[in-house]
Amino acid sequence: MPLVSMNEFLPKAKAGKFAVGQFNMNNLEFAQAITDAAIAEKSPFIFGVSEGALKYMGIEYTVAIAQAAAKKSGLPIALHLDHGSSFEVAMKCIRAGFSSVMFDGSHYSLEENIAITKEVVKAAHAMGVSVEGELGTIGGVEDDISVDEENASLAKPEEAIRFYEETGVDCLAIAVGTAHGMYKGEPKIHYDIIQKVTDAIPVPVVLHGGSGVPDEAIRLSVAAGVGKINVNTENQVAMTKTIREVLAASDSVYDPRKYLVPARAAMQAVVQEKIRLFGSSNQA
Questions:
Q1: 149-154 long-range contacts, Cβ below 8 Å, gap at least 24?
Q2: How far apart are CA 52 and CA 139, in angstroms?
Q3: Under a CB-based contact definition with an 8 Å cutoff, are residues 274 and 24 in contact?
Q4: Alpha-carbon distance 179 to 142, whole Å?
């Protein structure tokens, strides 16, 4: 099966009150773990790829790995640019074979964010590619980009509704109290904002910073209208923890496969648990 746009499954997610997971791909083992988890759960999913991951893996390798996963699995899989910083980066990914892109203009004024996102949507939709936009500023650290709590800002429902109406994005990430990375405390999610926005627009709301969010908070977010949830850090932690344990247990291990195989299994377990929590099992 070829890579698909998120429109292949996000409308169904919104109507069915479940969420599809975006699991970030950082190397081959991440891709294998995510795909095998989705196969086991019969779930659609999204490969998220940040600009930092693109620099690390190379865009050609990234697309080839995602295409191989789609062919092997037979599942609806979107390859999605995560937090694209410009129109040019989004177009580069589309030309390379991405089936979905995000333009993150949350650091611009509302008017400028709308204007650039609108141009990305126009170009992407002409190619059958879905687009995610972002409003408000999500705290935490992603790809060495840090936003402290003081500078994080919640999305205003009326601005989110206007943003959708003027851009026509296929899903909308709004800042509602989550953060990238792992939490030191418990996130305070503003379900009222999610509900107001999702009641007013036909496309799903996206929850960034899904790693470490308590299960009940995830369930409440999905019930309020979240149809896409991003997870990266929990997989990174699972992989690194497992590798450390294997290497600590024996000084004689030097074959990467000896620690990458169990690390991959640890990530698959995380992803399967998230898929079940999000409610997307058997929705492929």
A1: 149/179, 152/179, 154/190, 154/193
A2: 18
A3: no
A4: 9
CA atoms within 13 A on the CB side of 137: 16
Residue among 82, 148, 192, 251 flagged as catalytic: 82
The 8-class DSSP code of residue 208 comes to -
Q: What is the pLDDT of residues 207-231, one digit of tens each?
A: 998 788 899 999 999 999 999 999 9
Q: At CA 38, angle to CA 37 and CA 40, rounded to 5? A: 65
> Which two three-digit tokens encode residue 103?
């333009």
CA dihedral 241, 247, 248, 252 (to 10 degrees): 170
- In DSSP terms, 134 is beta-bridged to 173
**How would you list the strands of the sheet with 139-142, edge to edge?**
145-147, 139-142, 179-180
What are the two backbone dihedrals, phi and then psi, of residue 257, each rounded to the nearest 5 degrees? -65, -25
pLDDT of residue 181: 55
Which amino acid belongs to residue 59? Answer: I
Q: CA 53 to CA 153: how far, in whole Å?
A: 26
Q: What is the pLDDT of residue 1?
A: 83
The pLDDT tens digits for 40-77 are: 999 999 999 999 999 999 999 999 999 999 999 999 99
Query: DSSP character for 19?
Result: -
The reply to whether 82 belongs to the active site is: yes
Q: Name the residue among 169, 180, 178, 161 with its Cα closest to residue 232.
A: 180
Q: How far apart are the C-alpha atoms of 75 and 72, rounded to whole Å?
A: 8
Strands 205-207 and 145-147: unpaired
Work out the mean pLDDT of the chain and round it to a whole number. Answer: 92
Residue 42 CB neighbours (<10 A): 15
Closest to 87 (Cα-Cα) out of 202, 190, 167: 167
Cα 173 to Cα 206: distance, rounded to the nearest angstrom: 4
